[in-house]
Amino acid sequence: MDRYCVMGNPVEHSKSPWIHARFAELTGETLRYDKRLVALDGFVQAIADLRAEGGLGCNITVPFKFEAARVAQIESPRARLAQASNLLHFRADGIFADNTDGAGLVSDIQNNAGVALAGRDVLLIGAGGASAGVLGPLIEARARSITVANRTLDKARALVERHAALAQLHGVEVEISELGAVQIPFDVVVNATASSLSGAGVPVSPKVLKPGALALDMMYGPAAAGFMDWARAHQAVPRDGLGMLVEQAAEAFLLWRGLRPPSAQVLAELRATLA
Ligand code: ATR
Q: Is the domain of 186 the same as that of 171?
């Protein structure tokens, strides 16, 4: 049977096996997808093991997204820009590294939340790995402007400079800001920090929210609760990262199997399961 998995540490609570099993059932595909806890120094070996077992690919989660490039011979342009990968595909011409996180976010915002990004002003909070994975696809969705706000301004600057050519190509204004300095309202606010988890509160002013703005935290469950409560309290539309999770998986499934699974249905089922 065609074999895939998600590798991470920790990986116990990953929803990916459930999501891919549902995608396979609903598309009539036959495959096996499990989760593998990988030792912190064991990523390269884990990839070699999966290939030796006849595995066809894997998803990669914390903390191995940055190591993926080391084992891949071919990298997609979006993985190269992100400097991180959430997906490997073992192809005849070598290991292909891709990043479907940003495509998943854009698809969730546009198709599930119903907010077209073209022409909108977007605030992206954070400049770590999570932000890096989504900035390119947000630019390609032709937002009018994207402001990357981060506690450490140099990290935001490096991220934005890396995307300058892409932003110019698509005519998108991409700027950087310190967290406290963002005082203008946005249509879409994406939290790519784990601010809710740290208990430190949302690190930007509520002035960043236009009335009815979409305010999305890439986390889900209790980790997203603080940000979503804040959004709700300031007349924004809160959204967690569960849709992004399902949509990045759908992009992976498409790449591996050549079929687009019914992701909206699977998202609704997953929400019902978690409720
Ligand atoms: P990830 O891969 O989840 O993005 P990361 O690369 O460690 O993790 O990045 C974490 C992001 O959250 C960074 O943007 C970080 O800001 P710094 O670049 O200044 O470190 C941000 N972050 C973490 N804790 C924060 C806090 N309490 N307030 C504001 N930003 C925070």
A: yes
